[in-house]
Amino acid sequence: MEKKNKIFEELEKVKQQAVGEIKGVDSQKELEELRVKYLGKKGILTTRFLKQLGKLDPQLRPQVGQETNACKDMITEQLSVKKKALVSEEKEKREEELYVDITRPGARRRTGYEHLLKKTQKEIEEIFISLGYAVKEGPEIENVFYNFEALNTPDWHPARDEHDSFYLKENEYLLRTHTSPVQIRTMEKEAPPIAIVAPGKVYRSDYDATHLPMFHQTEGLFVDKDVNVGHLKGTLEHFMRELFSKDITIRLRPSFFPFTEPSFEVDISWKDKYGKIQWLEVLGAGMVDPNVFKAVGYDPEVWSGFAFGAGIERLTMLKYGLTDIRDLVRGDIRFLRQEL
Ligand code: DAH
What we know:
alpha+beta; BirA Bifunctional Protein, domain 2; 7-stranded mixed β-sheet; 3-stranded antiparallel β-sheet; 12 helices; 10 strands; 21% strand; rod-shaped; binds 3,4-dihydroxyphenylalanine
């Protein structure tokens, strides 16, 4: 009787132990190890109970056999319950790892901003394109004929001084000092009427808070019959109002340029926030000089026109309230990043 109790007690202990261990497992691999440990050919149930049946009292054998099998079934059941739990747990975990929240805001990618100068240049082009003008380009390495002579700029003119310009190759070529040569190049090739703007880089030997050795200008040229100063003024006033989006008026002050007669400095004015009228010089302009028409073979008795030249840096500084022209070329990322 005692022996009987002992073997059943032992079986019960094994059962409890198996149930405990199965509960504690957290992977299918460990679970499989437990199956082998308890139910395998060399497992505990086989070696410690079934294989020992022969040594037992024959009367006890059937019962021990039965109980052992019941224990085996019970462990099998526990293993399968646990396996199901592990499978669904692992699936859940995998799904969690793969889960993408499509409602989350995307990663922000920094995009660059258009440089202020290019932005202003584009705006100028668009204003004139909407008036029916064409956009023209010319070479930055220019010869003295286009840069000065055809523009009625004689030898003695200070612009031709070595100190103001960057000359190349025995003073025959230079980095263009203004965009006005594009007027000549266009009129040489095309018959009037002409309406063009010519933006681009120009070069002068200057460097301080308001001057750069390389800067940008846009030239404008309009040629037709019976063109007068009223056309010039109306066009420039429209240009300034479009560019600065303010109720701007302009005034023309007499000035001198070799390639225009009469010539003007053009000022713009607007009311500042205190209601005071402000005037600022923005560009040079004038009626095309007859000598310029002669240089390109247009008859000055038939054709008339106006021209203007504006610094794009200057217009940009006015538009955005910049105080140092050098900010435009320093490449300071904090400056460039501003979305103006
Ligand atoms: N070329 C002149 C300069 O660089 C600007 C200019 C003035 C251009 C008057 C013109 C003009 O076409 O009519 O200072």
